[in-house]
Amino acid sequence: MYDLETLQRENALAVQSAHRMVHGRNKAPDEETIDQPVFPLAILASVLTVGPPSLARLADAILNSDAIHDFLMLVREYLPQYEAEIMAGGGDFDRIKRFKRYFEPLYFEMSALAEAYDEFTLEDFCMQIPVELYGFAGDDLEYFADFRDGYTLLLALFENPCLEDERVPILEHAKDLVGAELLKLIPKDGFSLDDIHEKLDGTEHEGCIAFADWMWQNTGCLQLDANYHEYGAEEWSRQVVDMLTEERWRVDDLQGKMLQAYQWLEANPPHNFKILLDLMNGTEPEKIAKEQIPLPLDKEGQVITKEV
Question: Is the pTM of this model over 0.85?
Answer without folding.
Answer: no
